[in-house]
Amino acid sequence: MELLKASLIRQFVFCPRIFYFYNFCDITPKYPKHVDFGNEFHVIQDELFKSRTFAKFGLSEYKAYKNQYLEDDELCGVCDMLFVGENEVVVLEFKHSDNLNLSNGAKMQLLAYAKMASKTYAKPCVRMILCSSNHLKHKVFKVFPDDFARLNKIIKDMKNLLDNGVFPNSSASLNACNQCEFFNYCDDRE
Ligand code: SF4
């Protein structure tokens, strides 16, 4: 079976219809300007990180990998940063805003990287980092066993949707719909 892209997990959690549109409809969404800014930010951040030692994260002794491709038997994706230590792996994602809140969808995406990295390096992942700004302001999130159970349930739901192809209901709020690139394709949203 084709591997699921970890980046689609965030969208699925935001609204399963987005995942449906990407997989079953020939629609090219028009992204808002801030999405381009996010892509440019990653390029700039990559350059800045070439000369940094990650001491601020307390991970100087760890081997660091940028834009690391990962996969396991059901997922694949590119993790912004991966740190491999003697006894653990740590995943990191950049955020171009100073807001270090981790949405449920973003958390599930990071957990997907944690799951793949853990399997690849045969080491546990018990913490994940969200990093914002050029000053490496960051926040560490603990990983609990229940988190992986939730991720596995989401992966199962995504696979079911791919198998049955049924247009899903959505519990997205009107606020979420108003910022969605597929707003014009959901006739039951106003
Ligand atoms: S407009 Fe709302 S219901 Fe439709 S895909 Fe977007 S978030 Fe989901």
TrEMBL record:
Domain DUF83: 7-186
Keywords tagged on the record: Antiviral defense, Exonuclease, Hydrolase, Iron, Iron-sulfur, Manganese, Metal-binding, Nuclease
The enzyme's E.C. designation: 3.1.12.1
Pfam families: Cas_Cas4
Cofactor stoichiometry and binding remark: Mg(2+) or Mn(2+) required for ssDNA cleavage activity.
Listed cofactors: iron-sulfur cluster; Mg(2+); Mn(2+); [4Fe-4S] cluster
Record InterPro entries: Cas4_exonuclease (IPR051827), CRISPR-assoc_prot_Cas4 (IPR013343), Dna2/Cas4_DUF83 (IPR022765), PDDEXK-like_dom_sf (IPR011604)
Role this protein plays: CRISPR (clustered regularly interspaced short palindromic repeat) is an adaptive immune system that provides protection against mobile genetic elements (viruses, transposable elements and conjugative plasmids). CRISPR clusters contain sequences complementary to antecedent mobile elements and target invading nucleic acids. CRISPR clusters are transcribed and processed into CRISPR RNA (crRNA).
Family recorded in the similarity comment: Belongs to the CRISPR-associated exonuclease Cas4 family.
Protein name as annotated: CRISPR-associated exonuclease Cas4
Species, as recorded: Campylobacter canadensis
